[in-house]
């Protein structure tokens, strides 16, 4: 079997397959680096990661490109307001974005493409469109795409664009979601504004041309799969298709995947509505990166997901349940032999996990398969019916699950520590929960020292002092576990 995904272009669930002998070409629209990303943005990137990891698990070679939009209206405006060149302004947010991806366990694509590093490709694409009569120069020196020249306009979003005004134009990067207008490919700049000097004159690219130019640069005129959030379907992706197909006469992307929104109280989480949380906001409130990642995949990408703090707490517990189950298996102490019923259930979970993901990346089904197995194995173990030879196959299924979902390995502590260091540098410690600050006020060296003191006290049979030290650590959220190999600690 192979992965089948809903294709927005055809309106059908279709197999995703590369051209013979070639890697699967994927272009996923990346962030505009004008500010910190919110977890709505990351819902899209985490699903791209789930897809990516699953395809890797299926041993499909990938050539995945993500753009970084490091020039647009907002960036120009904010950089000018900060009195900085745009590159200085965006560097900080690009770095933050990459750190956030890492915190969420998102793998990097094969190519990260910055818009500002592909200006010549954009200029030559625009020139080609002018040559073919699909673009024209306005009296203001800007260049526009003539949508009336592209009969297929609207084929992705299925919008009825009858009655669209021929020649009506729009200059801004973000505009009315329902009307089709000739859109800017190249924006002439005013004196003093940041610009590139090119054969098109002094100016800068529009947003849509960036993706067309960079997708073609890395993936060719036609490629397999294009991904973005649902808001990008129109006009951004429609415009990409119009530009690219007008220039090449070939199908641009064969398959289009759109990740539906993360909502807050029924509305799209977005900067403009002010109803957003960044990853860092949530880390400073004491939530774990693994729980946030897990929450974002709890509902399959084809459905919107409503963000709630209750949901986040539930995800925290779900990740804990999985981790303690894996610990329980590794610690062992089970009766010898093999329980055949449990082995059959393990094989079933394995198959159901893969089948769920193959079925339009149904993360909910894939997760349910694993949680069913965890429930059954835990109750078998409680009854003494999980046997030594059941352990390895179950751990294998867990590893397979985790190669895609990536929440079992506990990196949460390190991630939270980085977030606190960032807050300290940015003067934002006031946003951190007091509980979190107290918990992380102990350095690892200090914790190790206190554990050494406690060991010394115990050796000296000063149990009152040993208990007092354990108690002090506990109030700061550090839990000690005495094991045969010594004392281990973890944060509550
Ligand atoms: P931006 O930086 O605004 O261009 O967005 C980056 C990516 O996040 C795009 O693919 C958007 O479609 C996606 N996105 C923005 N808001 C949301 C949301 N609330 N839920 C899911 N994806 C979103
Ligand atoms: Zn794009």
Topology:
Elements: E1 4-7, E2 12-15, E3 24-28, H1 39-57, E4 62-68, H2 73-82, H3 86-103, E5 111-114, H4 119-131, E6 135-137, E7 143-145, E8 169-170, E9 182-188, E10 196-198, E11 201-205, H5 207-219, E12 223-229, H6 233-248, E13 253-259, E14 262-264, E15 267-268, H7 279-284, H8 289-296, E16 305-306, H9 309-331, H10 340-358, H11 363-382, H12 388-405, H13 412-425, H14 434-440, H15 444-459, H16 463-475, E17 478-483, E18 486-491
Helix pairs in contact: 1-12, 2-3, 4-5, 4-6, 5-6, 8-9, 10-11, 10-12, 11-12, 15-16
Bound molecules: adenosine monophosphate (AMP) and zinc ion.
Zinc ion binds next to loops.
Q: What amount of the residues lies in strands?
A: 15-25%
Shape descriptor reads globular
Largest sheet: 6 strands, mixed
Which class do the helix and strand fractions yield?
alpha/beta
Low-pLDDT stretches are none
List its salient traits.
binds zinc ion; alpha/beta; five-stranded parallel β-sheet; binds adenosine monophosphate; six-stranded mixed β-sheet
Walk me through what this model shows.
The protein is built from 16 helices and 18 strands. Strands 6, 7, 8, 9, 10 and 11 form a six-stranded mixed β-sheet that branches. It has a five-stranded parallel β-sheet with strand order 5-4-3-12-13, sandwiched between helices. A three-stranded mixed β-sheet has the order 15-14-16, with helices on one face. The chain has 492 residues and is of the alpha/beta class. The radius of gyration is 26 Å and the shape is globular. The structure holds adenosine monophosphate and zinc ion. The site of adenosine monophosphate (AMP) has 17 residues, from helix 1 and strand 12. Zinc ion binds next to loops.
